Amino acid sequence: MHTVDRDAHSTGDAGRGSENPAPSEHLERLTSLLEAGPAAILTGAGISTDSGIPDYRGTGSPPRTPMNIEQFTTDARYRSRFWAGARIGALRIANVRANAGHKAVAALEQSGHLTGVITQNVDGLHTAAGAQNVAELHGSGSTMRCIAEGHRFTRAETLAWFDAANPGFVERNADAPSNPDGDADVADIEGVRVPVCPACGATLRPDVVYFGEHVPKPVFAHAERIVADAELLIIAGSSLAVNTGVRLVHRAEARGIPIAVINRGPTAVDRRPSLHTRIEGGTSETLSALAAALSGSRQTGG
Prior knowledge:
Radius of gyration: 20 Å
Strand order of the largest sheet: 3-2-1-7-8-9
Low-confidence stretches: 1-21
CATH superfamily: TPP-binding domain
Mean pLDDT: 87
Number of strands: 9
Structural class: alpha/beta
Distance between the termini: 45 Å
Largest sheet: 6 strands, parallel
Number of helices: 10
CATH topology: Rossmann fold
Shape: elongated
Order of helices and strands: HEHHHEHEEEHHEHEHEEH
Strand content: 5-15%
CATH class: Alpha Beta
């Protein structure tokens, strides 16, 4: 979907397979930290790659420049490109489901080991997995809103309007190559008619944070509360390549709580004194092992 300020697109190739499980001593250290008090978890694109959603910065990811908000609002051709890519991309992501990493996060929250979930992703998979206290830093890709009045509609209904305005488009472009974030690289955008708000006729846009925009203050405040209630901050599947996540690291450091990282590849906090535990591994297997270890400890009274 050509969006977002996504360190939401910023994994260091986290979450790809399970060929390199986390060393047991690092997992034990992380388990001990969580037994001592609940954590806040900040997730990036690496937690969703096992669901089949490509990331922007992982190994093998194609170079590309996501659309920014100025382009979207001022250039009709960019808007056509967005809607064309979103429509074909919807064919690919229709069967995307929460993976073991998302489910492990939900289980950790349910067991009281997490104060909440902060995510840079717009895919909604944490909520789909059952997480309750979720701060979506970059919004939700499942909602569209009009620029003028803020009327909101589901992505599914707006894509149905696109189909009605562009008969035969899907059939002609179904083979367009996929891009990160669930859209497609559609070359055939001449003559594309984009949907507008049926209530006021204004331009519709995804309810996400584009490059060039800021995280809404209430959303960031929600994320800050999750960190304020925690005794540990876990970074999972993110290289922290954009500032929003780093700001939350600063909040954790100001409170004097440790940082733990689960990621494949380097992150922006790897050399910070606050880093307590660093697991070079995929999110699905590591978080699943963590949830299992804590569940076993609780059952045995440990």
